[in-house]
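Thread: Newbie trying to understand structure tokens

Hi all, I'm a second-year student working on a class project, and my supervisor (Dr. K.) asked me to get a predicted structure for one chain before our next meeting. I've only ever worked with sequences, so writing a 3D structure as a token string is new to me. If someone could post the tokens and maybe explain what I'm looking at, I'd be very grateful. Here's the chain:
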Amino acid sequence: MKTARSRLDELLPLLQPQGRELHINAAILEVADMALLAELAADAKIRRFLLARISDTAALVDPGCAEALEAALLTAGHTPKRLQGEWQ
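---
Reply by user tm_fold:
Sure, no problem. This is what the structure looks like when written as tokens:
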């Protein structure tokens, strides 16, 4: 049986930039635990919006697709909470 980490590594590789990166107006999907991120990444209707994993509980979302991802999460029975703000 595969672990949540091995499933995540297969479905949503960890982003490993070669240097520092700054993403402006980035959308991030953050979940409570690794198993939930693995479950979401296994769902093709949700996975198509996820670009890469940035931690064991967060993924970078395709630019401009945050609303579509939110709709897909709601359709799948999840209850997403949207936060907006600026990093300072």
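A couple of things are worth pointing out once you decode it. DSSP finds four helices and three strands in the chain. The first strand starts at residue 27 and ends at 30. Feel free to ask follow-ups in this thread.
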